[in-house]
Known about the structure:
The protein has helices at 3-21, 27-34, 38-50, 78-91, 97-112, 116-126, 144-153, 224-234, and strands at 55-58, 62-65, 155-163, 168-182, 186-193, 198-203, 207-216. The chain is α+β, with helices and mostly antiparallel strands. Helix 2 (27-34) packs across helix 3 (38-50) and helix 4 packs antiparallel against helix 5. The longest helix is centred in the first third of the chain and has 19 residues, at 3-21. It is globular, with a radius of gyration of 22 Å.
Amino acid sequence: MNDNDVKRISRLTAIVTQLQTKRLLTATQLSEQFNVSIRTIYRDIKALEQAGVPILTEIGKGYTLMEGYKVPPVMFTENEANALVTAEQLISKSGDTSLSKEYTTAISKVKAVLQYSTKEKVELLSNRIAISPALSHANPSGSLTLIQNALTSFKVLDITYHSEHKDEITERKIEPFALYYSLQESWLLIAYCRLRKDFRMFRLDRILKIKLLELSFKPHALTLAEYLDEKKKKFITPDTLLS
């Protein structure tokens, strides 16, 4: 087996992995990602189909895997496993207990599929990483996972919020739009507030109560980049002027 064969097998495996993690991918996106021609991607897709991988083509949209199809667990390299273990330490200090809990569960599954030699090295690295106590938060939140679910399913949230700059407690119905991490204030939720009739930033540690409603909203046309650019025009950083 020559180098070209090895590269192609590696690319084919990576294409299947990408298709499993994203709903739709175009030939152009794949060609740019793997630095090959679109014609090569067409040949790769055909080869995968002939090998029995159920790839569906949506005309004018791209490629997707058949619903329910799963590839065997991905084997992580030592460097990839080290990166995930390092991220685990940072996330544990992220200021949100729900995120820390979910990531700990996820990283346990990753460690379970590691080869024995890599597993030992990862465990050693895990015991040799420490995060400064200065990054600890006195008032951690516990709602990030719920907010993420609402954001991706376009569901309205009902919150009780303690506003810092006005020192008032208000009941809000908000449409989650994006998440922003600030070293000064930890996790912030950018959302359309139906009370203020505008986009606002909410500190997660100042959300006193939160409830996911069975009330959907239409996705906003605004992009996160556009929102942050607009904030920078008015303030020094996007962290200024919370809700």
